[in-house]
Amino acid sequence: MLTPLRGESMALARFLMHVPGLIVRQKLSFAEIIAPLAVELAPCYWITFIQSGGPFSGDWLSESPRHTEKIERKRFDVPAMNDGALCCWRPHTFPPLAKHVRLDEWSSFWAVRCSDDEAVERLLRFKGDWHETLGDELARTAREADLYLMYPDGWWEIYTRHEDWRRKCQAAFADSFERSWKKAGESPF
């Protein structure tokens, strides 16, 4: 169960709910969508949620046992979080392995910049009812993540508390546009 928001956390979540997300109306790969932030994202811990299982392409994994070994070294073991669809990853997993990530509808990716000592505690804050409303999920994201990427189905949504990250993405994806978090998941087409 999530810790109720109070004090600074509540103020931060309220503030961030008014920060616009960035909508990219293109079917880009995960590697393409994170490319503008490669330097900033490399030291982040990650949580991935792919409804149909882990994030990596089965074809790539079956090419070589070394691929599976590499993935196992990159996995960050947070037992309450690693349930197949929801996985945690060490820093420097992405962007290097991003080109092997597969997408399905409603894929989600959270990047969290923190020290190794803080990692388990920070990532466990994401564990909640994964069937909660999108608004609740976004409030948790506003409070905890440095970046949230959502691929509903044919477009990307980028949410970050870092204005410079948003500007970099906006410059990289010229046809992107800003939209309120309150419309997250609504088709832009």
Textual characterization of the structure:
The protein is α+β, with helices and mostly antiparallel strands. It has one domain (18-183). The chain is 33% helix and 17% strand. The protein has helices at residues 7-16, 30-34, 38-41, 58-63, 65-74, 119-124, 134-144, 163-172, and strands at 21-24, 45-49, 86-89, 107-112, 147-151, 156-160, 177-179. The protein has a seven-stranded antiparallel sheet with strand order 3-2-4-5-6-1-7, sandwiched between helices. Helix 1 packs across helix 7 (134-144). The protein is globular, with a radius of gyration of 16 Å.
- The largest beta-sheet arranges its strands as 3-2-4-5-6-1-7
% residues in beta strands: 15-25%
Helix and strand pattern: HEHHEHHEEHHEEHE
Our measurement of the CA-to-CA distance between the termini, rounded to an integer number of angstroms, reads 35 Å
Largest sheet: 7 strands, antiparallel
Number of strands: 7
- The number of helical runs is 8
Given helix and strand content, the structural type is: alpha+beta
Low-confidence runs: 1-6
Q: Calculate Rg over CA atoms.
A: 16 Å
- Average pLDDT works out at 85
